[in-house]
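Hi R.,

As promised, here are both runs. First protein below:
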Amino acid sequence: MDMNVIKIEMKEIPEESKDDRMSIASSFSSQSLVLDIENFKGDFSFNDLFANLVNGLLPSFIEEDADSMEGMISIAKGLSSPLFPEVDTLLLIFQDSCTQLADLRKQIDGRLQKLKKEVVAQDSKHRKTLGELEKGVDGIFNSFARLDYRISSVGQTAAKIGDHLQSADSQRETASQTMELIKYLMEFNSNQGDMLQLSSLFSDDKRVAEAASIAQKLRSLAEEDIGRHGATMQSVAGNATGSKGLEVAITNLQEYCNELENKLLSRFDSASQRRELTNMAECAKILSGFNRGTSAMQHYVGLRPMFDVEVMNEDSRLVLGDPDSTPSHDDVNLALSERYKQITDSVRKESSTIRTVFPCPDDVMSILVQRVMEDRIPNLLEKLLVKPSLINPPPTRQGGLLLYLRRLAVGYERTQELAKDLCSVGCGDLDVEGLTEALFLEHKDIYVEYERASMRQLYKAKMEELLAEGQMSSKGASISVTVVTEFVSWNEEAISRCKLFSPLPANLAANAKAVFTCLLDQVRQYTTEGLERAREGLREVASQRERFVLGRKVGSGAASVAEGAVTAGESSFRSFMLALQGCGSSVATIQQYFATSISRLLLPVDGAHAASCEEMTAAMSSAESSAIKGLQQCIEIVIAETERLLSTEQKATDFKSLDDGLMADPRPTTACTRVVAYLSRVLESAFTALEGLNKQSFLTELGNRLHKALTNHWLKFSFNASGGLKLKRDVTEYGDFLRNFNAPTIDEKFETLSIMANIFLVAPESLPSLIEGTPSIKKEAQRFVQLRDDYRSARLAAKLSSVWG
């Protein structure tokens, strides 16, 4: 087969396929492609629409493509036929669909235009209808307004008619009552004291309430008439008979009302004894017409058992115990709380009866609580708060002034609680808080004076106690922080009472300042006297040392006196340091107490805080002065003992031994060892007791004095080379110990002394270069050079003349 034939065959196949596809598309289009408006209503899905259009053509193609083997063959055949033969059919379907969609769009646009015109017409018609309705509604509102006005007018007319009718009826009734009152008044207008001609109303026990009401009205009417005629008699002379009959009536009415009131009170008492609350309430209601029932209220309150003399005396007995006993503060507090609770319970019980019986229970409760606060409570407080004399106060073993202050605080606190409890039960408009303050007013006015006197009494008692224990002598001169803490505890208790009795910030600040000043005085006196006692011990040591010096001169008992002086000196030194430490701790305690408890109380008053700070500084100044003097005495004791040890222990051979070799004993001299041991022992308490700048100042001063004492001591000796080594070793020993002082100036001085010792070690010809090469020793070198044992033999004065300039 040639190539032309093959080409023809390959072209014929597509032609046949195309004709087939056209016929299939025409058939499919004529039978299946129908689009309607209903297809687009509801839940429209384009995927469903598209599937309806093409699913008729696609299944055969999909099945052919599913078979992988046949798919490969189809691909191979596709080289001579279209890859997707149904595309023409689908294009025809899509074109037909677009045509139908365009027709549908025109139909929809037409319908929309028609609907738009109909909506415009309906809207115009609706607006016209609304306008007509608004006009109709306005007319209805106008009609309702006219109707409302007519109804209001008719109502007002009816109300006026009703008021006139009511007024007329009231006037008629008033006239009828007035006529009846005049009738009764005329009955009382008979002879004075004649009650036999009165109507049965005034003698009928069943009509007591009515009789009481009428009698009160008659009294008011008669008194008003007398007042009116009395004014007329002052302006019209000679009219002396205008109200004579009414005066008789008033006298008779007063007598009748008194008799009736007494009768009702008697009936009320009888009902009260039988606990007939209904009869009591009836009598109380009638009695309320007599002076607003005041007599009945007071009569009822006055007969309460809680105000019996025996009951009120029992109050003080239960709170204070037997007359010969002195109950503790806690016992009084507990007993008073319990008794006040019983009083509150009694008032609460009476409140239940009062609210059942009396028409105005708050007024009765006011009278009852007032009677409690003005009668029963003062009776108890009078025995509880016996104000002691400030001139001759009771001794501390009997409680002293502090007992009165504690009872005063307990009484005030418990009475305030009672007042609150009574208010919760009910007391009407009574100012219970004011009554409570009035009970304690005489005590609060001079309260601060008693606080200050009490703290002075406590301080005196404490000092007597310490004296009895032997802590107030020079041998027991330590200042105890425990004692100062006790002072603070007294002050804290006093401040708590200041807060209780001084609710106003300004008053509290003034009272707190006065109380704190007492504490400052106590601490100042205690610390100053403690330091002075410790100084007395130091003075005794100085006196004993003078006796030692005198004894050494006369040669009698020098050794025993010296030993006693040393022991006493170290003991007094430690005692003073302990006292100084206690003083510092006490001052810190006071400062902390002021910062945490006092300072904030003083802020409401300008200048109070600064004034207290100045007082605190002034109070500590006397103790500071004693401390400075005592520290100076301590330095004198240390220097004196150091000089004694040097003078007794230092030998001339220590610095000028016969073996003048540089390989001498490297140990410090005995005198140096003894002095350093003494300083280590005696200054141990100083290192513990002193702090901060006080410690630095003391040790610096002591270091300077030691430097001076040692220098003067060494200037008394002559040195050879081995003696120079000994000196240098001693200087090193002293310097090592004094480094514990942490005083750079002292360290520098002893370093200079160490360098100075080299003057005794170098050869004579090397001295000029040593001195000129060390400017720090040049000032003192001239004196030390003269201590060389070869100073004259080596003619050092001439050799060094150029150095001294």
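And here is the second one, sequence first, then its structure tokens:
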Amino acid sequence: MFKFLKEVVSGSGSGLKDLPYNIGEPYASAWGSWAHYRGTSKDDGSPVSIFSLSGSSSQDRHLAAGRNGVKRLRTVRHPNILSFLHSTEVEGFDGPSQKHTIYIVTEPVMPLSEKLKELNLGGTQRDEYYAWGLHQITKAVSFLNNDCKLVHGNVCVSSVVVTQTLDWKLHAFDVLSEFDANNEAANSPMLQFEWLVGAQYKPMELSKSEWAAIRKSPPWAIDAWGLGCLIYEIFSGLKLTKTEELRNTASIPKSLLPDYQRLLSSAPSRRMNPSKLIDNSEFFQNKLVETIQFMEILNLKDSVEKDSFFRKLPNIAEQLPREIVLKKLLPVLASSLEFGSAAAPALTVLLKMGAWLPPDQFNMKVLPTIVKLFASNDRAIRVSLLQHVDQFGDSLSSQIVDEQVFPHVATGFADTSAFLRELTLKSMLILAPKLSQRTLSGSLLKYLSKLQVDEEPAIRTNTTILLGNIASYMNDGTRKRVLINAFTVRALRDTFPPARSAGILALTVTSSYYDMTEIATRILPNVAVLTIDPDSDVRTKAFQALDQFLSIARQNHEKLTTGVESNVGNSTGVQPNANSSLLSWAMSSLTQKGKASDHAPIVNANSSTVSSATSNSTLVTDVQSTAPVRTASMSSFEQVAPPSPTRSADGWGDAEDGSVPDLGDEDGGWDDVDPFEEPKPTSLTNIQAAQKRPVSQPKQPAVNSSRAPPATKSTIEAEDDPWGSVAAPVPKPATKTLNPKPVSSSSARNDDDLWGSIAAPAPKSTVKPLKPTTVNDDSDPWAAIAAPPPTTRAKPLSSLGRGRGTKPSQPKLGAQRIDRTSSGSSGF
């Protein structure tokens, strides 16, 4: 039947060469003459159990029974029967005598008696776990008796083992044989190896060897008696020594006592069928059994039942034994999620249970399932993962995040749901530190560039916050290219007040990354203009930021005065208060109904943190009931915040005019900001030269007569102000911009002037300004405030320019009126 292999090196069996498993330490108890060892696979080191049975010769009757057990265990498969992996029989020598040994390798299990002592359960938790174990063994016995027409013959504590997931499994099949009911006349034993069964476990008919009566009895008669013996042993905690002890029912639960008595009936035909015990016993109706049974048939449940079950499961898990939850429920739950049978609420339960595990066990049992779930197309699963990323993000390795997690998470940046986009953004606070520089600079920053012009103000604000938080993970070149452009060009000009506040906070927190030239020429001018912001919170933060950056400038001045050259930016540390505020903003949502272009500044005097919106992207402003709501007019607001970032143009080329990249531009981002790369730091000589320029050179756009007086007044003030030339330097005549459209005078100034980004924009008008036909006299200081020529047409015709200046205006107008009525005129 079995092939004899090579001999063992030593009598202990640990030197077995051909067995692909390593034999470890033995357990204290095992069934019959078998020895039970811990073991591991030589291939992958996975744990196994190894059973061995030795005899002096191949004809040993114990070995014959053992071979029967190996054959039966190999062929009978059931979830509640011990899983067979491998078997072999070897012949060797133990000293001078010959020795034959049978080895059976199974899944890793532990004797039931030892496991019960280890768990040491009591009260309701003990009864619930025993009920689940008995339920499993009863199902195995019912399968053998009713479905296979087999008789186990020796059901007891020794024949039950426990898996790593605390499941009870039946083994010890040495006595197992077919139920020979048709051969009623035969007096030969039906159970060939019944002599292996202890007398205390034998029913009366088996003790007397009444094989005719046994064959007339139901197939379950002998094993029903064995179930009664098992119930007595586990509840009494004592090993059965004689049959009379079964009459002691003090330790048997009252709900199980009637069934216990029916199992041990003296008449074999009246003994309870194990299948009825499963279906009808009140003892099996408890939370643990019902929970596990529901999860085992989860695929057959509808979505309503699943949602209801998983919402109740956290409370149920609190009441169950902790070790049972971690070793039994958690693996079943992880498997259900991995194969798609569990709903999204199950992930919350999985993470709650996983929090009870040690870190190494969490990484082994929970983390692989979570990583696989990131590839799920179920939006509810994705939302749940992002909402709880802080619970498992630290356990993810950098390689897993960069290669397996981020590619799936990144799809949420472009999701149609604003709620999912915002959750994806917030998850980067945990995942970004684990990304490689290639992924961080090449992928993540492109997504953030688009989110900073998102239609939802909360997303734009939190994008700025995130950039401030992950700045330390960027390399120097990326920080130089991204931070100032993201914070000054976009954040400080956002129409949503908290977004402007976030831009100021981000600048202060990342102050150590800027050199003195950037602070003086790009940061201070953009922050200073916010000191007149309509929102009080923005103004407060602007003043605080100015104090910080002016302090840096003052330190630089003192060091340069004393002749010490140092990097002043590196001497300025991150303010703890500002950093804390950024973190709190990044972990919350800012809400405002409508798009950014429709926003009016919101004043919240007591808090800068606003709570978040819902998944339908409908945002509601979260302000205190006592906080005033103030709406600024468009004219006053435009002086502080240029047009909304959502009204994007074709890229960063128009960043100085408040334009931003199109959402569909894959290459749009902070790495192609030409206007901010071309200007060089203005030297003292250039500033002095700008002060000496005549104030009459800047071209004024043509406006109607109703706006002429304000222009004259501002020009007069500029004439009286010696710094007027710095605020509005003279543009070069041949200035080129990235915008192919006609350039207004204000945008032309911005190309040559580092201060142009904060200059008040020219009044908007749909009428294209006319070029003056006469050249201003440089010697006339009043030319700049002279009233502009009146404009009566959007765009003059080329024929009109030939006669302008040669005819008096009054005859010209009269001639046009006469020529309009004449058919032969070729005038207007």
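A quick note on the second one: The two ends are 116 Å apart (CA to CA). Let me know what you think.

Best,
J.
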